């Protein structure tokens, strides 16, 4: 499980006095602990849930970074960027825009050609096929462009 390796990484970051890595790892650990307690029991969370949590953490930091950038707060922007780079190390490799487009085109072909009305069905299948490998916003953008 990823949560076990995170604990080891936190210890290493503390010894190395790597504050950026330590902040990112602590955020991951906090998210995992919160998810475990939300389910009621102290059971481990599965890999799919871990990936969703990591994606959520990255998304939150990107949104914060955009706000800080627009307000001219480079110091806070840089902190968010550092944490994003730490968290992304634990995510599966993200697909390129072209790779995503090919997968979505295949999904549309399997459905026998979809129209704008069937966007929800296509999105559902695409999100399932690309879980953890692509950003939801990008998937929606590509589906919309292919169906229009």
TrEMBL record:
Pfam families given for it? YqeY
Extract the InterPro entries matched here: Asn/Gln_tRNA_amidoTrase-B-like, GatB_Yqey_C_2, YqeY/Aim41, YqeY/Aim41_N
- Which segments of the protein form a coiled coil according to its record? none
Which Gene3D superfamilies does the entry mention? 1.10.10.410, Uncharacterised protein YqeY/AIM41 PF09424, N-terminal domain
- Put simply, this protein is called GatB/YqeY domain-containing protein
């Amino acid at each position: 499980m990823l949560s076990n390796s995170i604990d080891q990484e936190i210890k290493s970051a503390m010894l190395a006095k790597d504050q950026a890595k330590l902040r990112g790892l602590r955020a991951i650990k906090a998210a995992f602990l919160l998810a475990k307690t939300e389910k009621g029991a102290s059971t481990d969370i599965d890999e799919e849930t871990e990936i969703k949590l990591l994606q959520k953490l990255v998304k939150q930091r990107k949104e914060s970074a955009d706000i800080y950038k627009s307000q001219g707060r480079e110091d806070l922007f840089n902190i968010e960027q550092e944490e994003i780079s730490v968290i992304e190390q634990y995510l599966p490799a993200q697909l390129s825009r072209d790779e995503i487009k090919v997968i979505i085109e295949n999904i549309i072909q399997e459905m026998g050609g979809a129209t704008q009305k069937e966007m929800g069905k296509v999105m559902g299948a695409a999100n399932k096929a690309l879980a953890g490998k692509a950003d939801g916003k990008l998937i929606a953008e590509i589906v919309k462009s292919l169906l229009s």
